[in-house]
Amino acid sequence: MKNSLRRISKIFIAFCFIPTISWSQGYQVNLQGQSQQGMASAGTALIQDAASIFYNPGGMSFLDNSEVIGGITPTISNGLFTETGTEEYARTTSPVGTPFAAYGVYKIGKSSKLSFGLGIYTPFGSTVEWQEGWAGRFAVTRLQLMSIFVQPTVSYKLAKSIGIGAGFVYTYGKVNLQKDLPLQFQNGDYGSVELAGTGSGLGFNIGIYYDPEKWFTVGLTYRSQVNMNLKNGTATFTVPTSLEDKFPSGGFTSTLPLPSVVTLGFAIKPIEKLTIAVDVNYVGWVAYDTLAFDYELNTESLEDTKSPRNYENTFAFRLGAQYDLTDKIVARAGISYGLTPVSNGYVTPETPDANRVSYTIGVGYEIGGRLKLDASLLYTQVKRTDKNIETNLEGTFKVIVFAPGLSISYALK
Q1: 150-199 pLDDT, tens per residue?
Q2: Which 3 state secondary structure label does DSSP give 108?
Q3: For residue 87, which of 192, 227, 375, 410 sits 20 to 30 Å off, Cα-Cα?
Q4: How many angstroms separate the Cα of 314 from the Cα of each of 28, 246, 358?
Q5: Looking at the domain that runs over 2-412, which CATH code has it been given?
Q6: Do the Cβ atoms of 384 and 80 come closer than 8 Å?
Q7: Separation between Cα atoms, residue 229 and residue 201, nearest integer Å
Q8: How far apart are CA 395 and CA 90, in angstroms?
Q9: Buried b (16+ CB within 10 A) or exposed e, 362-386
Q10: Nearest-angstrom CA–CA distance, 345 and 385
């Protein structure tokens, strides 16, 4: 019993602050602009709208007008887990996620080389919930995350063909994780724990945009690592009375690294109505090698923990195309391939991640010269079989995701 309690304490905390949604690459979400989403999120070298605040601050100064834009991308995911050996399966019952993005750009005069912008977006955020009594209930039953990035940005056109830009990033996050504990009450119910808290972090986003020819552009950006510092987490245990002294409710602290991203992008215009964009992302997931937690109240069964994650740096490749159907309507499509940062032995119910192909389509419609509507649709699926070295949870995860999105923008001419 004593050894069992010690193992429980070391296992459960390993999952408490993995802010993911089950369809993200690692725990990164790329839903920051509808025009770009329709092209598999390729937008570093193709400056379309105020979402360049996120995709490439260096290109923000190349926008023709001041502009405001807001959008939302409801995400619908269905997950299935089949346990190795028993072949028992469980499904997710997750609600629809609602990542959003809002941007505003102000140009200092029509011909000014200087532009200011503000972006507010949610690169991490959703709820993952598994059906009651599933095989991995001691790993997680429900995980809810809300994360908001606020990015004031400045961009300057150094010359006719070169722009640079930078933005300061403030991050605020809120998380709630619930899971069962293998400690039974007399009526047969299992104990549980709820971990909740808020955190914040700082970072930056810089970029350069080069437009040497009308038909060819290049972009390079760097989004820094952000360390999300959780200083006021609260752990609430529900356990049999005889074990309350071994699992005391109280506070804890932790730090979660959100990785850096380097992106090189190209865009070409082979014919008048067609534009093709390519982005290559290099994501610094190696920063997420360990997940450590410091408890305010320690006992023999509840010790501070250091849980290995051993994520690896990865690449993602994005290819998108846009075609002008008319003067007011554009059609978009894209495909991306992302390598998973999650090594064998470290797959969890929060990140049942794998190498994957994602497909997107989109459309843009200009209304009256100033108002524009953009819509996109993303589809992806994941399949990964693994055995977690900490929890021994072994089986196959399958996840299918649909993410339709819509935004509206207004140009201030």
Answers
A1: 999 999 999 989 999 999 999 998 878 888 988 888 888 899 988 888 88
A2: coil
A3: 192
A4: 12, 41, 16
A5: 2.40.160.60
A6: no
A7: 6
A8: 11
A9: bbbebeeeeebebbbbbebbbebeb
A10: 10
